[in-house]
Amino acid sequence: MGRASRKFVFPVLGLLCLVLFYSTRATGEGSANQSRIDHGRQLVLTHGCGDCHTPWKLGANGPEPDSSRLLSGHPQELVMPPAPPAQGPWLVNASATFTAWGGPWGVSFSKNLTSDKETGLGNWTEENFIQTMRTGREMGKGRMLLPPMPWPSYQHLTDEELKSMYAYLMSIPVIKNKIPDPVAPSAPEPAKK
Amino acid sequence: MSKIRLNESGNVKLSELIATTLLLMCRRLISRYCHWRGTQAIFGMLVLACVLRGESGAGGANPKSLSETGLYSDFATKSIAKENLMYSPQYALWSDGAAKKRWVYLPPGATIDASDAENWVFPVGAKFWKEFTFGKRVETRIIEKTAPEKWSYQTYAWNEDQTDAFLVGANGSRNHCEIAEGIKHDIPGVNDCKVCHEGDGRDVILGFSALQLSPDRDSLAPHAEKFDSTMIDLNFLIAQGRLTNLADEFKTKPPRIQGKTPRERAALGYIWANCGGCHNADDPLASVGMELKLPLRPDSSGQDSALASVVGHPSKFKIPDNGEDPTYRILPGYPEHSSLIYRMQTRNPIRQMPPLGTKIVDQEAVDLISEWIREDLGK
Fold this sequence. Notes:
The complex is a heterodimer. By secondary structure, chain A is mainly alpha-helical. Chain A is built from five helices and five strands.
């Protein structure tokens, strides 16, 4: 080995080390994120989010969540007739999809939890999501969420758990599906001018 | 980073630790020596444990009555203690027509860091009171800075004969008293206070700032409160040396909203105070992408760009029955096609703005802002 080439040995070795270091670190980060997403998926499954946020359909073996619409909320094309009056021992009504809900609070529709910017949680920050689950208010500061969204139970999830759920929701296929506004019982509207 | 923590009182108190240890020891003792001496010891420990537990109970720090919060020097005559200073923000929050009085206490010698004119940093010990009156006193709210980046929130509800006011529980008191035909006032719970008064470690004091205390007061502000000589303002704080790092320009030229017309100034000021607390770039709600807390002294061109996220900007929220027209946050010339007006004008709880703290439309403000959209922006 000539003198000149020997001069390069250390820098090249150094560079190699750097490259190695960063590549392992990057995959390290990637897998950390992946394990967070996996944890989030497990939490979303065990907390039954899909029971209400994925529309149900009639499959070969009976009713099942429609996995092609994973967590995308009440199907936009399914326009519901007015809910039966909320009274008597059967106070609460649900659609066959388990995404539209009638009760003393009016009518609510399960929301689109995918990261579509226009119709889902695409514009929400992680903080907006965590605060929604903690306070039961839209984006943590807006109107109160209506039943049956069980936020009073979910508010006890830890920050870490909620962050994982959020990471998972941001990782699933984006579905554009516009959810209708809820209907308040006898809501006062502004006078038309 | 998140504000409502899993365990509100996260730090375990020493007394609680001791109490719990004692209780555990009792259990051991019962199973080991179930005779007279043992019973005596167990009894003693149990009493001690209960006392300690009780002492460490949640909210133990807040006095039960308003009379013990330091606001008054003589409660019977409702004389305010002289260290508490009265003030009035030039742009008040609409609270369904309540008349309000406000006082501040700043610890002796302590100063406010005013480097950021819009986000003052208060000294620990700073305390604010706000009294709500609907014909009669209804509630007095308190915010106090208890440690760096830590605030406490309480409210006291006045009794019928106005002789005392008592601490309201953390969940507030819904439908507390009638304020108009068929409409009842809600006393907010602590989490609701935080919706408006907490933001990622920032001090969120909304009515005590350079603009709110400016001596250059806006006489067209909706429900403008009278300023009188018993109240303090920005000049007072400067003279008393209570402000550090206040921009020099504000000392000679008090801050004001630069409207192109007096009507525009009042409209933007109202929006600044009633909407800008949530809709600003420093808030978690910045993700909505609508800036309603405008910078204080833009030149006219700067103001147009400051309003860029509002005027002529499409709204994610669609006005129902608005035909095929896209909805704008503000459509110049057309308040009826502006979602900002729609949401101020409804008290449908699903759509109203602000989303909490009010059940009656602020018609004076709706009229003012509609006029501004129709006349000033429409031209």
